[in-house]
Amino acid sequence: MVNESDVRRIAELADVGIPAEVLPTFTAQFNRILEYFDILDTLGDECTAKRPLHTVLREDVVSPSLPQEAVLANAAEDEDGFVKAPRVM
Amino acid sequence: MDDRFNAYLLRSDVPGRRSGPLAGRTVAIKDNISTAGMETTCGSRILKGYVPPYDAHVVSLLRDAGATINGKTNMDEFGMGTTTENSGFGPTLNPVDTTRVPGGSSGGSAAAVAAGLAEMALGTDTGGSIRCPAAFCGIVGFKPTYGRVSRYGLVAYANSLETIGPMGRTVGDISALLRVISRPDPRDSTMQGLPYEHDPVPSVRGRTIGVPAEFFGEGVDPRVAAKVRDSIETLAACGAKVVPVSMPTMKFALAAYYITCTSEASSNLARYDGVRFGPGAEVQRSWHDAFTAVRAEHFGEEVRRRILLGTFALSAGYYGRYYGKAQTARAQVAADFERLFRSVDLLAGPTMPTVAFRLGELADPLSMYLADILTVPANLAGVPAISVPCGSVDGLPVGLQLMGRPFDDETVIDAAAAFEAEVTA
Amino acid sequence: MSADQVIIGLEIHCQLDTRTKLFCGCSTDYRDDGPNTHVCPVCLGLPGTMPAVNRRAVEYALRVAKAFNCEIPEECEFSRKNYFYPDLPKGYQITQYDRPLALGGHIVIEAEEGGEKKVRLTRIHMEEDPGRLVHRGGGARARYSLVDYNRSGVPLIEIVTEPDLRSPKEARRLLAKLRATLEYLGVFDSEKEGSLRVDANVSIAGHDRVEIKNISSYKGVEKALTFEITRQRSLIRRGATVERETRHFVEARGTTTASRSKVEEHDYRYFPEPDLPPLRVASWLDDIALPELPDARRERFMQQYGLSINHARTLTGDLRLAEFFEAVAGEDPVLAATWVADTLLGELNYRDRTIATVDPIRFRSLLSLVGSGTITDRSGVEVLRLVLDTPEEPASIVERLGLAVTGDDAVATAIAEVLAEQPQAVADYRAGKGAALNYLAGQVMKKTRGRADPREVGRRLAEALAE
So what's the pLDDT on residue C231? Predict the structure, then answer.
């Protein structure tokens, strides 16, 4: 089970804000869901997951890139062909 | 076009490139499938204004087949929901009863078809998101075998679970649409199996249909259960052998599903930073603060919840307990299906445990998740599954779900066609 | 291990020299082009896109693993490394985590004490390069960042060594060997700026380990390590603790500084990349033919050309240099080796130029002029400098400057003249003062304006004096 400060820490890790006023309800709902997940504790180890075993590869042949304008088209801000982003502290 | 159900987020009228098998037919496209030059929001305000510079593979195929794309449909934000109430742009209403939800997450596509606003639609199904709204709106919805339809251009929610699929009024339409979209694509490395190139043969003669007891358990509305049992009887009358079976791994399915999809989603949604697309991060702030603010403001509550659940499930110390265990559970569910399919050709049961909920009825997230209990097993194992209308309860549609062997979508379609032929006769 | 022992391990990222990126078909040849001109929906991380693995990148990575004697498991897998940074468009990097392409292996280097040493490798894996950040805004702190995604998705291999290195010099040798081998394998171009980046872990035995990031040049590695070792040693001498931390190398100052970001273990929440099936490529190994690698070439140079181990080592330490040498070895490889390794490299270094800028044909002509005695060694150097700095042919330079060693008569005449003009020196020589010979030889050289071969002059002068 997790408490409110755990939820805040997870939110920090996920870079998603949870407003303080909804934190208690959110935490309670979160815990109910985690409690439901506990059913997996009764799972035996009989099966290891197998992923499809085909290797899919692409040839090393150049295909056209987007024009610079298309790359910048959806960006909120750009400068001299670069995408503008907040600085990292 | 009068869209009083809020089925569409964007209307358009783009005829196909050339004549083809879908010439003159209208197709609506769920808004998590990329359409070049047309806004694609995934039902989220964090993608408001995002215009993809490329078409999803299925969209190119539709254009080449001559289909007219008449718009992008509403959905639960990023596919996260069972009612389309989680859309960032308001819920879609069920055309059968506008006080009720159309189901989700492909609620807009289902409503568009049910209301006759489009002849067919593309939806996506991660945990039941095609089948649920098909059942609630009284139309046909099909989730193909995982890997038979390219996901290139489908905005990822849960990569290992989701697939694009056809929705329409008839099994014939579903099949025609599936033929067009099930083509190879080297850009999707998870594609498997041969393209679907089948014409429905409406028959179940000689087939064995298993009916898992777990699909008629406690949470299922007895009237829905009764309707579905009747439908299975109809199939028996068509020449199918019906046997009771059991699927003990059902009890792990929902947990395995929600752990897997939230984990993958937490990673898939990390790219929404407002920098290359989206509402724009405040450049004057620091990266971390700006990023967190954009996401807090523009992601809805359910999306934030699932991102946190997934982040938690993958975090240090918890991976083995949650994500690791979920994959084991998945493998067991797949093995359970495999075991059953050694003696049956199809599995049958209700698509949803109830008929359509009222708007606002499911307020608690966990009870929302529990509504997926009958649909998630097919996604966990990757098997094909269809929902066909099989009557109604209190005027609200009920869906019959049929599931088949991996890559045997053809048998599922044939059985559905047989049922449809019988009930429309 | 002695108490004061330096322990170094390296994590080296090398860009593989494929035509396209690791997961999409964008060209990797972006360096001369404007920002965001080598980008597609995949490497831009647009919603709905999916990675598709470049076959050649996998083949190149396997070549490297084979060359370094690694063990290749039957199956390997790509994983997602989740973290947020403006240069990481998807919010995760596709890399390899618990199931990498290759494990173990070793790289052989010259040991500190002489002889050879095997530096063990931990693993080699593939991953994609992030984009590039440029900071703008005045003052000490940039106001915002500018992002260029051209580099995003370029294929990298990451090579991790065990902490077997014992000095900055060994680290430099390891990198040199690695670089040369990668070039010999044809998978890497060291000329490309930023194609190799190094993180180093360094500690003094018994104390905590410090990670140094952001080293992007070979010289930088030795500098960074030297600085850091000094820093750690002085802390220890003062009785202070060496903090276990991540430090940043500042190339311009040759120092390491504490990272400003929080010192927290990142939780990358690794999980297998769901959009990529596992890779089964171990069976390719048999089909991978390795070319002649640096050590083998070194041995061959010693056998085939009769070179000393030092010359052989120098000349095989860089692929282009080795090829250049073989192009100019001609009839006198030992002469060629001396001229290339001892003289040419020095001149190139001084001019901050590479061997690629030298025309082997012109150099060969120069070598024949020296080898045949047509010009003296000293003149040879003069000619070499002009060959490097101008387009003029060596023969033409020699003629224009009159550098050809004079015929016998001129020398004989000069000797006769000098002996006549310098009776005192002759007498001194005959009286046993050996230094007088040098003086006389110098006079002869003066008369022939330095064009005579000094050895010739010395020999013939001695002969003449003996009469």
Answer: 95
Cis check: omega of the bond before B105, within 30 degrees of 0: yes
Q: Lowest-pLDDT range, B306-310, C172-176, C428-432?
A: C428-432
Which residues of A, range 48-77, sit inside 8 Å of C by Cβ? Answer: 51-68, 71-72
Domain spanning B8-210+229-245+339-424, CATH architecture: Alpha-Beta Complex (3.90)
Rounded distance, CA B44 to CA B422, Å? 41
| Domain-located, residue A69 | no
Question: If you count DSSP H runs as helices and E runs as strands, how many of each does chain B have, helices first?
Answer: 12, 11
Domain assignment of residue C331, given as a range = 294-401
B397: left (phi over 0), alpha (psi -120 to 50) or beta: beta
pLDDT in tens, C213-224: 989 888 899 999
Residue ranges of alpha helices (H) inside B285-340 are 287-298, 301-314, 325-340
CATH of the domain at C418: 1.10.10.410
How is residue B9 annotated by DSSP? E
- Tell me how close the Cα of B399 comes to any Cα of chain C, in angstroms: 30
Task: State which residue of chain A sits closest to C36, comparing Cα positions.
Answer: A68
A2, A7, A47, A54: which to substitute to probe chain B, counting the most B Cβ within 10 Å?
A: A47
Q: In chain C, how many domains are there?
A: 3
- Determine phi and psi for C291, rounding to 5 degrees: -75, 180
| C50, C275 contact by CB (below 8 A) | yes
User: Which positions in chain C touch A68 (Cβ < 8 Å)?
Assistant: 34-37
Of the listed ranges B223-232, B362-371, C260-269, the one predicted with least confidence? C260-269
Identify any residues that bridge with B120 across adjacent strands, giving them in sequence order: B27, B168
Chain C positions touching B309 (Cβ under 8 A) are none
C85 and C154 part of one domain? yes
Q: Which of B87, B106, B129, B182 is catalytic?
A: B129
> Shortest CA distance to C412 belongs to which of C349, C373, C347, C456?
C456
pLDDT (average), residues B219-244: 97
Contacts of B40 in chain C (CB under 8 A): 47-48
ipTM of the complex: 0.96
pLDDT digits (tens, 9 = 90+) for C95-127: 999 999 999 999 999 987 778 999 999 999 999
Assess whether pLDDT exceeds 60 at residue C281: yes
- Please indicate whether residue B34 is annotated as part of the active site: no
- What residue type is assigned to position B330 of the chain? R
Q: What predicted TM-score, i.e. pTM, was given to this entire model?
A: 0.91
Minimum distance, in Å, between the CA of residue A65 and any CA atom of chain B: 11
Q: Whose structure tokens read 């199956």?
A: C75
Domain limits for position A35? 4-47
Q: Alpha-carbon distance B194 to B408, whole Å?
A: 10
Q: d(Cα B250, Cα C173) in Å, to the nearest integer?
A: 59
Classify strands C210-215 and C196-204 as parallel, antiparallel or unpaired: antiparallel
Distance from CA of C195 to the nearest CA of A (A): 19
Residues of chain C neighbouring A62 (CB-CB closer than 8 A)? 19-20, 25-27
Residue among B30, B72, B143, B227 flagged as catalytic: B30
